Amino acid sequence: EDQVTQSPEALRLQEGESSSLNCSYTVSGLRGLFWYRQDPGKGPEFLFTLYSAGEEKEKERLKATLTKKESFLHITAPKPEDSATYLCAVQGEGSARQLTFGSGTQLTVLP
Amino acid sequence: GAGVSQSPRYKVAKRGQDVALRCDPISGHVSLFWYQQALGQGPEFLTYFQNEAQLDKSGLPSDRFFAERPEGSVSTLKIQRTQQEDSAVYLCASRPGTSGTEQYFGPGTRLTVT
User: In terms of CB atoms within 10 Å, which of A43, A44, A71, B47 comes out highest?
Assistant: First the structure.
């Protein structure tokens, strides 16, 4: 059974204070690891897909990295508009086609 | 272009009522998923369609839950005899192909059972 654990559950940063969110996973054959952003009252918004260990992707202030056991979402010099819940999900070879999500990290960036 | 849309956005039902939740996926997307999201948790898989075929319904919590996608586009999730534990946000997602790529989510329907 695929499992995803995210830490910390909540994170408060000052504007400009860089940090990282962690996603630990166990999966039988990784087909993809996905990062989403979710704002209150909205559906998850796709950010990145990572397929293999060592892969990195960047978008504005966000950078996602992947190892064989975990993924990190690095946030550089965050702004208040980066405040959201960040969700990590995996698709394994054993699962049909659905994503298995973690519980998310609720990020608050204070001005 | 238009994203995934869901209706209604909010639904209040009395315990025991039947509800129907609608999903309009991105045009041309083959795969469609339903997820349930409890407060403070990540989405949990309910069921999966490839075109009109329901290929996986292993996540449906009970036989009160039923989903269909008769023409391979719009999908409806129906919950019969709603219970308080059914209160959650129901998310629909679609994907252009059949595997390996990202899913695009709708805004969700927040169901409250009183």
Answer: A44
